[in-house]
């Protein structure tokens, strides 16, 4: 069964608030591949490990029926509580035991979740539920994210990565699949016609609060918080303070007038 790391109601609420939908370039990469393989238009798309539904909402715009599945009841409750298109529904179930008839699913997706699955069982289940000619699209965000804000991009990125390095010390062993850009997961998929794309770059607009909230939503941070709540909370508070300082400096620099120079 898939690893269960997102069970708490509080964690699910943070996840829903701060996790972002797949970026535009990733969306277009997936849709282009599905068009190339003539997998769309499609009747049924299933988003496995959907969390609180950020990726599921994207699918709802392109498929007749979309079902998001997740092993976490708390995550599915958050997904159901979020407004969505009428063609989207949600189910609680393991990724390795999908409640769909054989050959009934046109498109199977998983956004930054497949590293939690039991890969061999999930691969067999994907093979079982997909119709002939159906497609699987699995993606993850890498951990080497950078922040961009005026002339302070390098400083903001340094602050972010210093915090990130501390949080990653508490990572589950399965995060290794993310660190190798899902190469092992790609190789485990039992489909001869498959493609691995690693050069997708998506800028995601975020506030300082959003960046810190994203880090708080991760399983690694939640493990850190269980082990040492004071240190974990202090780390995020200090990171937010440092990022906010650099952001204000970048805004001040950006507002300087050539005819009226400002000392900083």
Summarize the structure.
The chain has 264 residues and is an alpha/beta fold. 46% of the residues lie in helices and 12% in strands.
Written account of the structure:
- By secondary structure, the protein is an alpha/beta fold.
- Helix content is about 45%, strand content about 10%.
- It has helices at about 10-20, 25-35, 55-60, 75-80, 120-130, 155-170, 175-180, 185-190, 210-215, 220-225, 230-255; strands spanning about 45-50, 65-70, 90, 105-110, 130-140.
- Strands 3-2-1-4-5 form a 5-stranded parallel beta sheet.
- The radius of gyration is 20 Å and the shape is globular.
- The protein starts with 8 loop residues before the first helix and ends in a 10-residue tail after the last helix.
Into which percent range does the helicity of residues fall?
40-55%
Order of helices and strands: HHEHEHEEHEHHHHHH
Shape estimate? globular
CATH superfamily: Vaccinia Virus protein VP39
Rg over CA atoms, rounded to whole Å, is: 20 Å
Q: How is the CATH topology named?
A: Rossmann fold
Low-confidence regions = 252-264
Q: What value does the average pLDDT take?
A: 87
Q: Structural class of the secondary elements?
A: alpha/beta
- CATH architecture, by name, is 3-Layer(aba) Sandwich
Q: Supply the CATH class.
A: Alpha Beta
Total DSSP helices: 11
How would a textbook summarize the main sheet?
5 strands, parallel
Distance between the termini: 56 Å
Number of strands: 5
Write down the domain tally. 1
- The largest sheet has its strands arranged as 3-2-1-4-5
């Amino acid at each position: 069964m898939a690893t269960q790391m997102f069970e708490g109601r509080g964690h699910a609420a943070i996840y829903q608030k701060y996790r972002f939908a797949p970026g535009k370039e990733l969306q277009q990469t997936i849709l282009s591949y599905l068009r190339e393989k003539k997998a769309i238009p499609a009747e049924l798309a299933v988003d496995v490990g959907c969390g609180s539904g950020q990726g599921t909402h994207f699918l709802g715009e392109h498929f007749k029926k979309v079902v998001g599945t997740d092993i976490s009841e708390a995550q599915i409750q958050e997904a159901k509580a979020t407004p969505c298109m009428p063609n989207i529904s949600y189910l609680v179930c393991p990724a390795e035991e999908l409640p769909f008839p054989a050959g009934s699913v046109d498109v199977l997706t998983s956004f930054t979740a497949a590293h939690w699955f039991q890969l061999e069982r999930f691969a067999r289940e994907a093979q079982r539920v997909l119709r002939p000619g159906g497609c699987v699209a699995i993606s993850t965000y890498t951990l080497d994210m950078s922040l961009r804000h005026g002339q302070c991009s390098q400083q903001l990125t340094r602050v972010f990565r210093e915090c990130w390095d501390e949080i990653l010390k508490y990572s589950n062993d399965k995060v290794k699949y993310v660190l190798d850009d899902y190469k092992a997961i790609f190789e485990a998929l039992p489909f001869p016609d498959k493609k691995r794309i690693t050069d997708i770059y998506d800028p995601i607009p975020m506030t300082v609060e959003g960046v810190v909230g994203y880090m708080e939503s991760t399983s690694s941070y939640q493990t850190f918080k269980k082990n040492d709540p004071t240190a974990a909370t202090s780390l995020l508070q200090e990171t937010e303070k440092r990022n906010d300082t650099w952001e204000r400096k970048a805004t001040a620099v950006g507002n300087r007038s050539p005819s009226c120079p400002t000392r900083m």
